[in-house]
Amino acid sequence: MTLTEDLPPTPESVSTTELTIEGIAYPVVLRYFETLNAGDFQATSALFADTGAMRPPFEEPVVGQDAIAAYLQAEAQGMTLSPHQGIAETLEDGQTQVQVTGKVQTRWFGVNVSWLFVLSQEQEILLTTIKLLASPQELLNIRR
Predict the structure, then answer these.
(1) Closest alpha carbon to 111 in 86, 81, 72
(2) Among candidate residues 47, 46, 52, 76, the one with its CA nearest the CA of residue 64
(3) Which helix (H) or strand (E) holds 28?
(4) Where are the alpha helices (DSSP H) in 1-135?
(5) CB contact at 8 A, 61 and 67
């Protein structure tokens, strides 16, 4: 094993499928969307640190890989995530914050969404916060 194999993957060193997000080249973020769209929720949850958390809209955080996989199995079936663009910045502690905007389509409706990822130095997801980018009226129309 060479020294470079011991290092965490960098955005340039890991290839993914054809998914691209304007402004984002972090493989773990790309894989998040790929695995969710494929319905492979175990693979999605494996991208999180052991104590990583997902904060869905209007709900308490879901913490831990097993809990995240179970949540996605129950709540994300049939969703199609279409990330469009994003920005990333390195935080003072060496972690990376990545914000992605796009759209989620369910069987019943589509809504604009923002995902905020906090990545560890090892490129694991520590936190994903998901926000709906809709007006109150749009949200009321979804419920009908």
Answers:
(1) 81
(2) 52
(3) helix 27-38
(4) 3-6, 27-38, 41-46, 65-75
(5) no
Using CB atoms within 10 A of its CB, is residue 41 exposed (0-12), middle (13-18) or buried (19+)?
buried
126 has pLDDT over 80: yes
How long, in residues, is the chain? 144
Locate 118 and state its tokens.
Answer: 């906090």
Structure tokens at 136: 């109150």
Assessment of whether the complete model's pTM goes beyond 0.85: no
Residue 99 CB burial class (10 angstroms; 0-12, 13-18, ≥19): middle
How far is Cα 133 from Cα 138, in angstroms, rounded to an integer?
9
Tell me if 79 sits within 8 A of 130, measured CB to CB: no
CA angle 114, 65, 54 (to 5 degrees): 20
State yes or no: pLDDT of 136 exceeds 90: no
For residue 135, the Cα-to-chain-centroid distance in whole angstroms is 22
Confidence of residue 13 (pLDDT cuts 50, 70, 90): very low
